[in-house]
Write a structure and sequence with these properties.
InterPro entries: UPF0210. The chain is an alpha/beta fold and 444 residues long. The protein is built from 15 helices and 14 strands. Strands 1, 2, 3, 4, 5, 6, 7, 8, 9, 10, 11 and 14 form a twelve-stranded mixed sheet that branches. The protein has a two-stranded antiparallel ribbon with strand order 12-13. A hairpin with a 6-residue loop joins strand 12 and strand 13.
Length: 444
Amino acid sequence: MFSPEEITEVIKMLTEEDLDIRSVTLSMNMLDAIDREEERSVSRIMDRVEVVQRFSQVVDEVKEKYGVSIITKRVATSPVQFFLEANPSKGYAIKLGKALDSLAIKGGIDYVGGFSAFADRGTSRSADVYISSLADVMNSTSRIAGVLSAGSTFSGINLGSVRGFVDQIFDMRPESSSRVAVMVNLPPDSPFVPSATHGLGMPDMQVNVAVSGPGVIESAIRKNRVNDIRELHNLIKRHAFKVTRLGELVGKEVSRLMNVPFGAVDLSLAPSPKTMDSVARVIEAMGVQRVGGFGSLTALAILLDAVKKGGAMATSSVGGLSGAFIPVSEDSGMTEAAMSGSITFETLIMMSAVCNTGIDMVGISKDSDRNEVASMILDELTLGLSLNKSLGVRLVPVDGKPGSVVDLGGLLGKVVIMPLKGISSSISSMDGFIPNFLKRLDFG
């Protein structure tokens, strides 16, 4: 039973502190739609429209039933690379992208993730077509998202796939590049885009949930003003427990009504451009004057450990990235810090050691040297291999000089063009792949 005080506290979280469910995601196996005949394959994809429409309706029903704000409805599909193996042509890749985009629009879904491929140690014919078509596909669609897996603890990092990814994002519009990322150690059950795919070993359908709640954590810290680190940790842990319980409640109800298995809750704190919905503000509430200053990594590590411990107590189904998101454009505090110079690429790489989103939603000038950009991405991905964790990079190349700001609107927020070092690096132009590290031997 919940006490009246706890019920009142949760109501306040929902009404005053921007507690919401960031996403409910239906993960779907679409491998049965693979066919050499393009039209037949597209037709089988579009056969899912009624299922997706039903999912959208169910999410709305649950939202109304519990009075909970659910920000986005998403679908994750089997990686499109598998389709391209049967017919490795750029025209087919574009046709598949438009079909998935149409599925999202007709189904009433905000995003469809799964326009994805794996090129961890080398580039197969399907991955090669995928990479070469990425810009054309994203520029001709509005609701699909994708991720290129360029490495893993088991395989190392494929340098060629990173270079290909960089070339493609430089040919994209800013909004288009916000829907793609390059990653290592990609999880099979992420509810967030662009990392969401229907991974191998999953049931035909399952529901995954992404929670939010940085505003709840910030409010609790500022209200209680504790001076003991363990008390602060425990305070965050208790609130993370409640946030996660809400996510599991919503996810299981959607699963029940859809009659599909419940998958996992991603414990990540996901910010938005709203002032009271910022991970950066949580770090500042913990005692750092401006995020990016010394102490930021310590605060972020304490925050994440408490969130994971509280969340793990609230659900037995943890999945996805389960960290804290620090997307520069989507977090008002991170945006301000980037504009002031307290957040740099070096700061983001440092913070990636404890969070799971890496360098996310950062603007770079289209005048940037592509080898330097690729080398910066390699630094981030290499950290993921060294620590055996999921890490990725999502960059937004835009016309303009460092310090300029481009407003993408909505959840995407304001993109700050951050300066690179301007130091030439040719390591990314070498052939082959970075061998897997000794950590691989931990698995036998």
